[in-house]
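2024-03-11 09:14:02 DEBUG pipeline.ingest accepted 1 chain
2024-03-11 09:14:02 DEBUG pipeline.ingest length=132
2024-03-11 09:14:03 DEBUG pipeline.predict start
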Amino acid sequence: MKLRTYIVEDNATIRENLIGTLEELADVQAIGIAETEDAGKAWLTANSSDWDLAIVDLFLRQGSGLGVLEACRQRRKTQKMVVLSNYATPDVRMRCAQLGVDAVFDKSNEIEVLVDYCIEHGRGHMDSSRAS
């Protein structure tokens, strides 16, 4: 079973490359995308049982990824929220941790780490879906 992943990223090139990389290397299925805070919040909260992982950029065409993270604080324990940003500073990482984010990755040099995270989370997801 693939890791159902929703991506909130307003840069089409980054989004398409990310989806291609994750689908090829990490057994991820991209189930939807949003380019704005409002669209990301709306989909993730309305379809709260339909996703396993959300990858969120902080700087969006409209709004902020922080609003998306805030809207998903009450998610199930098995659902993971990660941030993929060009601005993965210590302050940003701390703010994300306060919002219950599971991990923060820097777009410029941590894509491989994100792929590894997705592979690992996918394995854990498989184990928990077998157990239930």
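2024-03-11 09:14:41 DEBUG pipeline.report The chain has five helices and five strands.
2024-03-11 09:14:41 DEBUG pipeline.predict end
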